[in-house]
Amino acid sequence: MITMGLVRKKAAEQPEDVAPERPSAEALRAQLDDPDPDCRREAALGLEGDEESVPHLLTRMTVETETNVRDAILTTLAAHDNETVAGSLAVHLASDDAALRTAVAEALATMPRSMPALLPSLLVAPDHDVRVMTAMVLADLNHPDTAAWLVQMISEDPHPNVVTAAIDALLPVAGPEHAAVLEEAVRRFPDDPFLRFTVQAALPRLAGTA
């Protein structure tokens, strides 16, 4: 008797996965106005590194209402870290939209190459709220001169709210060498109880007696 061996059929070859084609920058720029916020966020992140898209991202940022989309736009813009982008963002430190002001400050704090060129004008901005926001930027800016800029604000700014914001930003990195400038700030604004409390609470630590 002849036994027929079973022959396993060769599995049909599966087509290789093909990565979807990346949308063009032009298509992504158009997608910034898509009704779907997920699509807008995807577009903002996809435009990373594209210089020609900077104006489109800046325009979209001013009207964007979704926080995660705006954060994506700011992340992409901040990655450029040049003076043009930083200057365009810094304008919004004076915005009436508190959430936008804070988001822009956080973005500027990630731009250590371009922020130094903006500081001379920001430190003397007529609006003291802009100077307060500048102190917030410096609080997180990774730059070797950050402490020196904050000391300048504490020593020279005429508004107690700005000085207090600068003190708050300086304290995490302050040392004994900063005690004198903090004490002088209290003397400059003797009627500001919050500033005085902030300094008095910090001095023992700076002196090593806390």
Summarize this structure as a short list of keywords or feature phrases.
mainly alpha, elongated, 12 helices, 60% helix
What does this structure look like?
- With about 210 residues, the protein is mainly α.
- It has a domain of about 90 residues.
- The protein is about 60% helix and about 0% strand.
- The longest helix has 15 residues.
- The chain is elongated, with a radius of gyration of 26 Å.
Short structural description:
Helix content is 60%, strand content 0%. It is mainly alpha-helical.
Secondary structure elements and pairings:
Layout: H1 25-31, H2 37-46, H3 54-63, H4 67-78, H5 83-90, H6 98-108, H7 115-122, H8 128-140, H9 146-156, H10 160-170, H11 179-188, H12 193-207
Helix pairs in contact: 1-2, 2-4, 3-4, 4-6, 6-8, 8-10, 9-10, 10-12, 11-12
What proportion of the residues form beta strands (DSSP E)? Answer: under 5%
Number-wise, the strands total 0
Structural class: mainly alpha
Rg, Å, rounded? 26 Å
Gross morphology: elongated
Per DSSP, the total helix count is: 12
Helix content: 55-70%
Distance between the termini: 99 Å
Order of helices and strands: HHHHHHHHHHHH
Name the average pLDDT: 91
pLDDT < 50 runs, ≥5 residues: 1-7
Main sheet attributes: strand count, strand direction, barrel closure: none
